Amino acid sequence: MRFGIFYEHQLPRPWGPDSERQLIADALEQIEVADRVGFDCVWEVEHHFLEEYSHSSASDVFLAAASQRARNIRLGFGILPLPPGFEHPARRAETVATLDLVSNGRVDFGTGETSSGAELAGFGVDRATKREQWEEAIDVVTRMMVEEPFAGWDGRFGSMPPRNVVPKPVQKPHPPLWVACSRRETIRMAATRGIGALSFSFVEPEEAGAWVDEYYSVLASEECVPAGFAVNPNVAVVLPMMLAHDEAEAIERGIDGAHFFGYSLAHYYVFGDHRPGRTNIWDEFQERRDEVGFARHIVRPDQAPLGVRILQEGLGSLRGAIGTPEQVRELVSRYEQAGVDQIIFVLQAGRNRHEHIVESLELFGAEVLPQFAGEAREAREAEKAARLSDAVAAALARREPARASDPAYVIAPIDSGPPAATAGRNGRSPGARAASLAQDLVDRAVTGGEQAFAAFVHRSDDRRLERIVGSDAGLRVLFSGMTARYRPDAVPGFAGSVLYDLRLADGTAKPWSVDVGPERAVAYAGRSPDPALTMRVAVADFVRIAAHDLDPGKALMTGRLTFEGNLSIAMRLGEMFGETSAL
Amino acid sequence: MRFGIFYEHQLPRPWGPDSERQLIADALEQIEVADRVGFDCVWEVEHHFLEEYSHSSASDVFLAAASQRARNIRLGFGILPLPPGFEHPARRAETVATLDLVSNGRVDFGTGETSSGAELAGFGVDRATKREQWEEAIDVVTRMMVEEPFAGWDGRFGSMPPRNVVPKPVQKPHPPLWVACSRRETIRMAATRGIGALSFSFVEPEEAGAWVDEYYSVLASEECVPAGFAVNPNVAVVLPMMLAHDEAEAIERGIDGAHFFGYSLAHYYVFGDHRPGRTNIWDEFQERRDEVGFARHIVRPDQAPLGVRILQEGLGSLRGAIGTPEQVRELVSRYEQAGVDQIIFVLQAGRNRHEHIVESLELFGAEVLPQFAGEAREAREAEKAARLSDAVAAALARREPARASDPAYVIAPIDSGPPAATAGRNGRSPGARAASLAQDLVDRAVTGGEQAFAAFVHRSDDRRLERIVGSDAGLRVLFSGMTARYRPDAVPGFAGSVLYDLRLADGTAKPWSVDVGPERAVAYAGRSPDPALTMRVAVADFVRIAAHDLDPGKALMTGRLTFEGNLSIAMRLGEMFGETSAL
Questions:
Q1: A572 to each of A466, A530, B136, how far by Cα in Å?
Q2: What was the pLDDT predicted at A296?
Q3: Which residues of B touch A125 (CB under 8 A)?
Q4: Rounded to an integer, what distance in angstroms lies between the CA atom of residue B209 and that of residue A330?
Q5: What are the CA-CA distances from residue A367 to residues A21, A241, A315, A329, B74 (Å)?
Q6: B547 is in which domain, residue-wise?
Q7: Are B49 and A168 a contacting pair at CB < 8 A?
Q8: Which residues of B touch A124 (CB under 8 A)?
Q9: B460: closest chain A residue by CA
Q10: Helix (DSSP H) and strand (DSSP E) numbers for chain B
């Protein structure tokens, strides 16, 4: 049996200015304790907008912080919702891999769909297809972690061209996969996909036993076709926990937290009408807990709601591990006998107090955990691995192998436009697109140094130069850059126009003019009526001169460039418009 | 003057199995050193798919890890691309806030657009509108961190209903904002939006001076209308760095890294044709560095490319802080005199060695940094704050205030469907949607305990029950759940049909039948031709009985429920189909 702790970052109102910071700081301290006393994994949820119920919306950040505070405990996403509306699958793959790197291979990759209306509608995720979205995304995400390069995605819920998604995780082929389950069918589904089942039902050991048996029998059957490139045969169940040597004390410390957990969950998922930023769930819980089955005090035992009766009558799934170390040892044994592989305890719930949580973790580590760890566990796990190894190998053989992308596929830095779908949605004229490309080129030429611009020009043929820099929009960018760098002191006293009589290879004229004054220069497309100087040159040559790829002296001598008018101005053009101007 | 270090996580090929892990581990160690010797901020880029150039695709994870290794240094996103195609603005707000919580308020929130074709096309982000996307997203993200609840987003590039985005950052109203700049116009734009300018051009001190002057004059003018809810008046420039007491040694240690940085940047942004997973940029760099201006050795000085000449002729922007502590002190002074607020050094570049980086950081902390820190800096910063305070207040007064959402806005957990836009895209029949809702309801009823289902039913009127659970799809879910729980031993020896003759309030018949056998039970919509038992009841009452909200005995006595046929079977229905079945 392995042991985990689970965080939703619950924060009942009212909130002070420091509440969220303290909540997180306490949790990190608890994880240090859990790590020290031998817990195997900390699991962190990802929820959005579920104020009071869960302030854990960036589990990756929290787990990454935890990775440097606790050096042995594993770090479980519990879970990352995979429908692409929440986050692009590439971002999920990158996040999981980077956490695996900073933690030196300690990630468990729990996945799921999410089902609260607050979250689905918040991110515009379609409820009816979220299972299919999960199916599509888990294939994409695992391929991203395995394929070098990722061969691409062309699916019902998104698409992506081939890319090498970096970094890759430490654990090969990828961290163990899990899926959130809330009922028997999902657990069965987990088995058919060869991934761990994270059961968030508060399930009794004996019922869990039936689920576990079915899980392993399906996993070992031909029905199992792995979702990832490795099989993770594990069933974990989640239970509330609070330990004290005195049973009544444990219940006193843990009952409100466990009840608020259940109430606030039901608020968001079942019965609550939620006013963002206004609803006070804690107050409503206090008012209504009796009515919905979370009564705090019982007048007549036979009138008590189910939850309370179970809490008094024995250690059941609703009570979980709230009790004495002895009671919890016995409970854990029952789950162990049922074949459950990991119990994940929820301690941080409602207003459960930090010091009680720390005390419970210490007690668990001292008085419960040792009975289930050590050599017996090692032997049992080795035996399990041996028993399943043939079935796992057979399952993996049924899986479609990683794909290979076309070796000829090339990404060009400048020409790459948006994919057709996006272009359609945010459609821009070709001119706007060329302007944007040219602008980026100029930006990057500056950033990367002149060399980069020169190299781009050097490696481009005339057609490419005409298309990108020589377009109307590209020329606008180039001339704007020139006038921005205008230095009036280069030609003191001169005021007049320079006409750039540019031509495309097909003969089309692309005239631009710059009016030069004592303070500034203004460029515009078209012919100045009375130019002091006219420069005639092909657009591509003009760009090459600007990039120092073509020597203007040579161009003059070979007739590719001609001047007409005030030649003394011609000699000062470079100085007038800065080094990267044309001339 | 403040000092930062900048990470792209460069990783030239070839890669070993441990290369990425070691790269990250080294970087974390370097940050510990930087923190100890007095650096102010570590900046981390977010890039995707730019293998060799940048393996930093989850900067939040890396910075969160760094937050627990270094307890004083600030943590800068340098930058997070804001176009929503990379990541939903809510995820950005959540990430920034959570990092601010785990670090106790040490986040600098750098933003930008991203311009590589590899990334834009990879995420389907439209190049032509990325500036407008940034404009829209920075407004949304900052409002999410300030508004309680966020009042919603209905824009050109996305939308979101009102939600309380949690957690909120420690720094109020939000962490300092920055924007990536690569040219004078963007720096000017940063000033008009009242945010810090992160200049990624390698710019000379004197040119930087002109930029800084313009920045502060625009920021103090009426042109400044802040993007966020606080003004961050700061200009930072990025420079390569490598320090050694011997100048030649510093150049020897730093030149290849700085050159590879420039070459690989130009590869992705300007001239490279990239084959994902196949192109070897390091090898190409070795072959072509001379050709594109990154020559390693010079035969004749006058033939040397620009970059090398500058590197030898003086401390310029392309050389940056590669040299002796004395040279770098002098360089920093020039930037200080130019009015630059922060210099961000790039040490991790190309194959620069970990021990050289650590040595440089130590040298900088011992021999350069002290001259620019201490009381003089405090005084200068206080003077600057006082000088700008009126302008900042005036600018903030020009900004549109945070919005308030309609207090009557309510999220209903069950009825919330996807927004119209998504429904159109992934359109499903109303039946499918109802099935999905009903499925979630049953899932959540199990997870949250019976109480939750009961409470939902208790708080719903008949019309709502009919719509959600009483739809064709909802009934399918309910009956599937019943048959899945079928226990043949409850009625040993019996085989036959039970007809549930259900009716809606408007009289419409909704008959369902369950064929019960020795091993399993099968449910289907419609009338069994020869039922052993017929139950007649309204759909809403049927659901209420299933949820234990209506006592079947009472329903029988009041005639709301009637049986016909084998009444001994009627008495066993509850046992047959488990506790949560109808009866």
A1: 26, 19, 43
A2: 67
A3: 418, 422
A4: 73
A5: 32, 14, 18, 8, 42
A6: 420-577
A7: no
A8: 159-160, 418-419, 421-422
A9: A271
A10: 21, 16
Residue A89 tokens read as 């699958």
Whether B511 has its CB under 8 Å from any CB of chain A: the answer is no
Q: Does B189 touch chain A (CB under 8 A)?
A: no
Tokens matching residue A513: 């003019």
Domain identity same for A265 and A371: yes
CB-count exposure of residue B406 (10 Å: 0-12, 13-18, 19+): exposed
In this prediction, residue A435 carries a pLDDT of: 57
**Is there a domain that residue B303 lies in?**
no
Interface membership of A419 toward B (CB under 8 Å): yes
Q: CATH number of the domain that A479 lies in?
A: 3.30.1050.10
Amino acid at B96: V
Å between A152 CA and nearest CA of chain B? 10
- Rounded to an integer, the average pLDDT of B320-334 is 94
Alpha carbon of B507: minimum distance to chain A alpha carbons (Å): 27
Query: Do A66 and A170 have their domain in common?
Result: yes
Q: Residue B432's pLDDT band (boundaries 50, 70, 90)?
A: low
Per-residue model confidence as pLDDT tens digits over A223-245:
999 999 999 999 999 999 999 99
d(CA B269, CA B180) in angstroms, rounded, equals 15
What pLDDT does residue A436 have?
61
Distances (CA, A) of B523 to B260, B479, B528: 68, 6, 10
Least confident of A336-345, A438-447, B300-309, B413-422: B413-422
Mean pLDDT check: name the lowest of A280-294, A560-574, B569-583: B569-583
State how far residue B40 is from chain A, nearest Cα, in angstroms. Answer: 20
**Average pLDDT in chain B:** 86
Q: Looking at beta carbons, which residues of chain B come within 8 Å of A166?
A: 20, 49-51, 55, 57
- CA-nearest of B47, B30, B48 to B39 is B30
A87-123: b (≥16 Cβ within 10 Å) or e: bbbbbbbbbbbbbbbbbeebbbbbbbbbbbbbbbbbb
Q: Indicate which CATH number applies to the domain containing B337.
A: 3.20.20.30
Query: Is-contact A303 A88, C-beta < 8 A?
Result: no
Q: How far apart are CA A198 and CA A366, in angstroms?
A: 26
What's the average model confidence in pLDDT over A515-521? 83
Residue B304, pLDDT above cutoff 50: no
- What is the tens place of the pLDDT at every residue in A68-77? 999 999 999 9
Write the ipTM: 0.80
Residue A514 forms part of a structural domain: yes
Same domain assignment for residues B349 and B498: no
More confident residue, A312 or B263: B263
What pLDDT shows up at residue A25? 98
Flag if B270 and A442 touch (Cβ within 8 Å): no
Interface test with B, best of A15, A141, A451, A579 (most B CBs within 10 A): A451
**From CA B366, how far away is CA B193, in angstroms rounded?**
37
**Number of domains making up chain A:** 2
Query: What pLDDT shows up at residue A424?
Result: 32
Q: Is B78 within the bounds of a domain? A: yes
CB A123 within 8 A of CB B416: no
Residues 300-329 of A with CB under 8 A from B: 305-307, 318
Q: Are residues A394 and A435 in the same domain?
A: no
Q: Which residues 100-129 of A are in CB contact (within 8 Å) with B?
A: 101-102, 104, 115-118, 120-129
The residue among B161, B159, B197 whose CA lies nearest residue B178 is: B197
- Strand order of the β-sheet with A561-565 is A521-525, A509-516, A496-503, A533-538, A561-565
Assigned domain for A289 exists = no
Residues of chain A with C-beta less than 8 angstroms from the C-beta of B83: none
Mutate to test the interface with A, among B101, B265, B415, B446 (most CBs of A within 10 A): B101
pLDDT tens digits for range B155-185: 999 999 999 999 999 999 999 999 999 778 8
